[in-house]
Amino acid sequence: MARIKPSVLKKAWQVNRLLPLLLPVCRTIEVAQQELRWIQEEISDKKRVRQCCLLRSRHYPLQYLLGTQPFGPLDVICQPGVLIPRWETEEWAVSLAGKLPRDRTFDVMDLCTGTGCIPLLLKYMRPKCSAFAIDCSPLAYKLAARNSDMLRVPLKVTQKDILKCSSEVVPRTVDLITCNPPYIPRSTFTRETTRSVKLFEPKLALLGNTEFYANLVDCWMSRTDAFVYEVGDLSQCQYVLERVTSDTKLSKNWRIGFKHDSNDQPRIVYGFRTSGSRLNWASILEEFGDMKH
Ligand SMILES: C[S@@+](CC[C@H](N)C(=O)[O-])C[C@H]1O[C@@H](n2cnc3c(N)ncnc32)[C@H](O)[C@@H]1O
């Protein structure tokens, strides 16, 4: 990363003495000013504002300092130890919510829920649905329940390991499963993540690869009519597609699509049953992404 020029640091210092602390993460004076405004809006005590700027200079995440992150129409509480919701997830979750029926009841189960951002948004935008969430982390489990209480959006949260596919973990079938699993392979973690993520966000939420997509095919597809899974790259989409198309029964009963994000990166693999579902998934997810099978 390019070093910040002394002339820029001096200019920032002249504007506000706290700005040079924010420049290493914000990179430009304008962005640093915006971030300082956000901190000052949340925190009135000047000493505390300075402490926050010092923490930011060490790449401590802004959302942990401010306490929340906007996620669609919701302000989701964030805390250390639980992944901060990303714009990529917000983008597809808002798009999905907009496609779900307003006038029908249905069940949605969010796996690897973290803050609970995805099912809380779906339930908020489609109040007739019943929302369930699972995470194995005790911190995430508590935070998702807290977000549900604070936002007054009902969500039933369970603390379980989703990779253990026992009937205790998977007690019921649902209409839709959503999941943003840990999907950054260990081999690319150091290269592909920012210092802030590496230092302060939980590895449990980040490191993973095909095991969660294998678990989708082996365990969760038989318990749902449709699924929407976030991915980190195309190989994870293709893994699911290959597993489905190489299985005669799954290939006949399921359709699979991929969706890119607005940065044109592969972001979602999704699928739905061709028949026997309570909702018409073919019409709901018709224009969600590109059908591949
Ligand atoms: C990428 S984060 C997603 C959090 C949230 N859904 C979001 O989009 O911001 C992945 C989450 O999966 C959880 N997790 C990791 N392994 C798990 C497992 N085996 N069973 C259940 N949850 C798991 C982590 O605790 C973390 O909260």
From TrEMBL:
Keyword Metal-binding: no
Class of the enzyme per the UniProt entry, highest EC level: transferase
EC number per UniProt: 2.1.1.297
Domain Methyltransferase small span(s) in chain numbering: 96-185
An example Gene Ontology molecular-function term: peptide chain release factor N(5)-glutamine methyltransferase activity
CDD domains the record matches: AdoMet_MTases (cd02440)
GO cellular component: mitochondrion
Keyword Transcription regulation found: no
GO BP annotation list: methylation
Entry keyword set: Methyltransferase, S-adenosyl-L-methionine, Transferase
Catalytic reaction annotation: L-glutaminyl-[peptide chain release factor] + S-adenosyl-L-methionine = N(5)-methyl-L-glutaminyl-[peptide chain release factor] + S-adenosyl-L-homocysteine + H(+)
Alphabetical list of InterPro entries matching this protein: HemK-like, N5-glutamine_MTase, SAM-dependent_MTases_sf, Small_mtfrase_dom
Name of this chain's protein: peptide chain release factor N(5)-glutamine methyltransferase
Lineage: Eukaryota, Fungi, Dikarya, Ascomycota, Saccharomycotina
